Structure formats: C-alpha cells, structure tokens
Amino acid sequence: MTGPTPFDDRYDEPDQLRDQLRRLLRHRVLIALGILLGLLGGLALALQRANTYTATSEVLVRSTTDPFGAVGVSADNQVSMSTEQRIAASAAVAHGAARLLGRPDSQAGTLGARVRVTNPMKSQVLRFEFTAREADRAARGANAFAEAYLVDRKVRNDAAVQRATHALEQQMAVLNQRLAQDQLERAAAKPATQNQLYSLQKKVLDIRARDTDGGDIVRRAQAPALPVGPGPRTLLALGLVLGLLLGIVLAWVRSALDTRVRSVGEVRDALGAPVFGILPSDDGGDDALLTVGRTVSPRTEAYRALAFRLRQIGGAAGLGRMLVVAPRRADAAEDVAANLAAALTEEGGEVVLVDAAPDTSGLAAHLPLMPYEPSAGEDGFPAGVLVDADAAGSFAFTTTGRTGPYLRAAEAERTVSEADSSAIVVTGPFLGQADALAVAQRVDGVIVVADLNGTRRDDLRKMQELIGCSGGHILGAVLDTGRPRRRLRALFRRRKNGPTSPVDTATMDLPLLDGTLTVSRR
C-alpha cells in the first residue's frame, strides 16, 4: 500500500509564531470583548473626568523665630514642613475653609476629601490642590483652604506669644512687688533686681514685636480652562490598548484551556494516523445528506478527492471493508460514508453501504432510496434497495436490523466478507454505543470523522486506545469544518414527519444482512 497523497494543510503551519497567532485569532469574540471593555472603560473615565477641575494655590510658610537671633540654623529647620503639611490637611483647617466658603460645618469633611496638600522638596511652600465639578468652585476652594491655613497658623502663633509673654509678665509682677516693698521700707533698690526687670520687659517687647502672620499666599488659584487629566482621545486610545491586551490575555487563557482539536497536527498526534482530507464548510449548498452526483460544490469535490486517496491506499487489492465512525456525532459519519460510497461508485467501483446503527431508519430516512426488482435473467443487484446517486450511479444499501450490538457486528462481518465489492460500514457514535467497537474488530480499517473545532483531543485518544487494544486498525481521519444546517437537522432528526427520500422508507422492507449480497457496476 502507498501512503496518502499530501495536500495543502492551511491549519498546520510549521512556524510556531504563526501557529500561536492563529490560536489566538480563533477566539476573536474574546479579543473583541476585551477591546469593547477597554473602550467602555476609557469612555467612562473620559466622561467622569470631563467635569472635573483642579485649581492650585501655594503658601509660603514663614518662620516665627527671629531671623537675626537664629544664627547657624537653616530655614528648613526653623519650620517643620511635615508637621505643617499635616496641620494644613486637618479638620480644623477644613472647618475654617467651610466657613470662608459659606458652607455649614457638616460639609467640612467633604471639602477636606477634595483637597490635596503637598510640599515640594527643599522648600517652605505648601501647595493646595482642590478638585471640584466646576472651575470657579475649584479656584475658590483652593484659595479658601490657603487662607484658612494662614488664619489657623496665625491663631496658633498668637497663642504661643500669649503663653510666652504671660510667663514673663508673672516674673515681672514679682519683681515689681519686690521693688515697691523696697521703696516703702526706704531701702535702696537693688540694681540687680532693676536690671532683671528691664531684661524681662525687653523680652516681652521682642516677643510681641515678632510677626505672627505665619506665611503669605504666593500663588492664588485661578479657574482652570481645561479639565484635569488627559483628554477624551487619550483616554479612549489608552482604553483601546488596554482592552486589546485584555482580549489577548483572555484568548490565550481560553486557548490554553481548550481541549478541542484545532489543526491537522493535533488530530494526527491524538490518533497516530494520517489525515486524508479536510471537508470545507458548505453553508450555501444543498442541505441533503447525499451531495455527490447531485450538486457541485467544494465539499462535493473534497469527497471525490477523499475517494481517490483511499483508492491509492488500497492499491490493486481494493478498499476492502471500512468502518466510518465519529467519536460523538453520528450524523458526521453518515455524511462521509454516504458521499464516499457515491464517489467510489462514480469512479466505477462496486460499493455496498451498511448501516450497523441500532436505529435502522436513521440513515435510510435521509437517503434517496429506491426499490429494485431485477428482470428475469438479469445479473447484478438482487432484489432489495439501492441508493440513487443520480449522475454518480447507484449503490447497494442494507442494514443489520435491531439485534444486539455484537450480533449486528457479526452479521455485518459475514455479509461484507461475502460481498463482491467494497463495503463501507457506518455505526452510531463510537464513544456512545458498543456497536462501533464490535464492528471495528471485524473490518480492515477504520476512518475517524473528526469535527474541527468541535471534537476533543481526549475523545480521539480514547478511540485510538480502544481500537488498538481491540485489534482494530485506524486507517486515517477526515476533518469536517462543519455544516451548521446539517447539525441543526440532526438535533431534530427524530421530530421530522416523513423521510426526505423520494421513497417512503417507513413502509419499505429494508434488506437485513442474512445472506450473500452481490452488486454490479452501474
């Protein structure tokens, strides 16, 4: 036997980068979903930021110490800016800003949440950034917080001056009492007491002479012309990029978790057998099960190419007995078996199609069957049922009856072994019924029909293991890219009223495999 004829496999590129890209692009819906979520997020952020304004005011914090007396002390050490930053963001300043804005004290917490106080490095400047829905409100809020902070700092400085002068004034009162007592006693005033009193008076004057304002507003907030943050175009572009990344990640995760076969290489690795061909999707074609000899479409030509490759494999000995079976879907195997029989008949072969499924009316109800009665002395088909493939000719069709699975398998083996033709046996789903495994042990080879993007790799591996352990042989596989209308029809196949064939198969006596069946060329 010769190997299968190589064909162009657009699902199996040697380039790993292209293969990974192709795997991602199979999940275009997830990528589109990620992009949509990114755009919606960018749009929501743009709408939220569209009416958000931030105004900034700056305050120079002034030291209250004597600049001429604090020799050797840097300005940074004269004022603790971290402490002042915390005080500027405190509730006391927020209450002062609320009063300046004419708001009730109950809104002080809300106003405090909208302000951000920062201290630029190596400076004695506090920066107030206030955010609001309107530009004017943002400017007024920033200026109110700056003024409230200065008022609060002045109050604190005045309180510190009051505390310091109060202690000195108490000492001065004691010294004045002592001097008055000395004068009553006509005692000479002690120069030391007078000098000490003069020194205390000088300290009080120096403390009261210091500036307690605490700072100056070096930058008043102005109403901003533009909203805060990037514009809508930037946010939408950022959302698009992030959404694309999210879609790629989702597609990659989905591809990593997907166990369905996606390429010829995956099918070949799972079965350990070659792939004979790929059946293209024929959504616009005829919905009938048998298309070879009746319609012209890419799928019909693929069936003819499959028949040609199988003849090359069989060589001069012929095809022999073949089982066409699918892991889970019986209708996929029925499509391939019926059209393969018609294609082989069209090439001049003698073919008998055997339905070994438990439901004998399943395949028969979708084939153009016709009763046949040979004339006296005529050689060829015995009395029974033929399948009319129109231009392709006619081939015999028979069933195994409603016996048990191993009895049906034995009947199929006996009949096809005695037939003077190639036999194509079709059964129910391999992993759903015991018929297929029983028949696989009695035929020359098995052709597995896999649904591309639908059949799982675990099912193919299980088929390969069961057939190998039972002594069967897998010739190869056929990939079906899908016929949506055919699949829909399979879901409701038992609900249809009447067959689609020109002959009423419900009243027709289908031949059972209880004897020798011979066929002749058309």
List key phrases describing it.
13 strands; 17 helices; alpha/beta; four-stranded antiparallel beta sheet; 522 residues
Describe the structure.
With 522 residues, the protein is an alpha/beta fold. 47% of the residues lie in helices and 14% in strands. The chain has helices at residues 16-25, 28-50, 75-78, 81-88, 91-100, 108-114, 135-184, 191-209, 232-257, 264-271, 298-314, 330-346, 360-364, 405-418, 435-440, 457-469, 484-491, and strands spanning 53-61, 115-118, 125-132, 215-219, 275-279, 321-325, 351-355, 369-372, 384-388, 394-399, 422-426, 445-451, 474-480. It has a nine-stranded mixed β-sheet, sandwiched between helices. It has a four-stranded antiparallel β-sheet with strand order 2-3-1-4. β9 (384-388) and β10 form a beta hairpin. α5 (91-100) crosses α7 (135-184) and α7 packs antiparallel against α8. It is rod-shaped, with a radius of gyration of 48 Å. The model is unreliable at 67-73, 376-383 and 487-522 (pLDDT under 50).
Report the sheet with the most strands, covering strand number, pairing sense and barrel closure. 9 strands, mixed
Number of helices: 17
- Give the termini distance in whole angstroms: 27 Å
Mean pLDDT: 76
Strand content: 5-15%
Low-confidence stretches: 67-73, 376-383, 487-522
Question: What is the tally of beta strands?
Answer: 13
The Cα radius of gyration reads 48 Å
**General form:** rod-shaped
Helix content: 40-55%
Order of helices and strands: HHEHHHHEEHHEHHEHEHEHEEEHEHEHEH
**How are the strands of the largest sheet arranged?**
5-13-12-6-11-7-10-9-8
Structural class: alpha/beta
